[in-house]
Amino acid sequence: MNRICLFSMKGDYSTNEGYRKIVKKKAAVMLALMCLGLITIIVVEVCKRCFGINVSDFTDGTYKGFGTGLMVAGGLLYLKRISMLKNEEKLKKARIEESDERLRAITDAAWKAATIVLLLVMYVEFLIAGIGMPEIIRIIEPLIAVFFIAYLIAYRVISKRM
Fold this sequence. Notes:
The chain is built from 5 helices and no strands. α1 runs antiparallel to α2, α2 packs across α3 (88-98) and α4 runs antiparallel to α5. The protein is mostly helical. The chain has helices spanning 16-49, 57-86, 88-98, 101-132, 134-161.
């Protein structure tokens, strides 16, 4: 079974002990996702109850649905990582699958494709929706700029390390 390495990490994939450290880091990332989900739900509730902000049903449902989704997905993936740590056979199988060079190349290509599609969609929204709603321009333009600045910084930092 091929696994999607959405949160692939650098580390020692040559031994189970080295991979165990990677799995523990991934479990921590899943706990962080659960916390983000909880924070998302808390933000909308605090805005409604403490600040008296009138939040529409759509917005309320969106925030709570997104937060719940993050909490459930993070929780399930956390449990999966913990069960993997307790079973040496599962750990070894996952280590071998995740260290596969072909899978890593597929993951890199998928990230590149998804990034390009996201940028194109943001740009099209910037062009079309920005004409009628100038606030879209003030939202999308900085996001695109932050992406390219982050890319340039990451490229320079990573190129110095390699």
